[in-house]
Amino acid sequence: MTPTMSTNASKRIFATLLELEGKQGWWPAATDFEMMIGAILVQHTAWANVEYSLNHLRDAGILSAQKIFEAQPQNLEALIRPTGFMKAKARTCHALSNWLLDHECESDNIPEDTSIPRLRESLLSVKGIGQETADVIRLYAFKEKCFIWDVYARRMLAALGYPSYSTYEAALKNQDVFISLDDYSLDQLGEYHGLIVEAGKRAGKEKSWEFLTSQIISQPDR
């Protein structure tokens, strides 16, 4: 049984994930800047390693845009070593900090009235920032609605009978067949991503999405 391709299905999946995984309260960060640095550091590593690196940055007193921009590359690399790929990630952290300072976003939290024209395009111009990282920064730090089409989201929908998209961009282009952003609050979209990540980890351990697909298929259409 293949789910109907409609935005109503996205609500059913969201509700089911919430029942299965519980509220996640994402993104796990004390400040917007910490969130953005975490989004860079988490690439190709486990979150536990990100926490180690964030603690190192915090203990060194440089967990701010100005301090990271001023930091010596080798010092920054040493502090974020637990996450791996430290040279590339240090360059991206520096580039993002420079971008934030250029846009007068030097405080730990992004002011609510901040408006950056073509925010996504601007973030993608930062060396080392890809589509997924740009979107999570938009969603969690700049409070701009978007759906995160990470690999877990794409695998989940493929398991539920939706088209299989091999890239983030391909899924984003076809977003309207699954979800309408107007149907969700900003907090719900943030929660949706957190739920999908947790479900994706579970699917990896169990080597199956059966725990979710069985629940969705068993639900009556409504």
Number of strands: 0
Percentage beta strand: under 5%
Based on the structure, what is the oligomeric state of the protein chains?
A: single chain
Task: Write the H/E string, N to C.
Answer: HHHHHHHHHHHH
Q: Would you tell me the structural class of the helices and strands?
A: mainly alpha
Count of folded domains: 2
| Rg over CA atoms | 18 Å
How many distinct helices? 12
Low-confidence stretches: 1-5
Helicity, in percent?
55-70%
- Average residue-wise pLDDT: 93
Tell me about the biggest sheet?
Answer: none
* Spatial gap, N to C terminus: 16 Å
Shape: globular
Pfam families: HhH-GPD (PF00730)
GO molecular function: 4 iron, 4 sulfur cluster binding; catalytic activity; metal ion binding
Protein name: HhH-GPD domain-containing protein
Keywords: 4Fe-4S, Iron, Iron-sulfur, Metal-binding
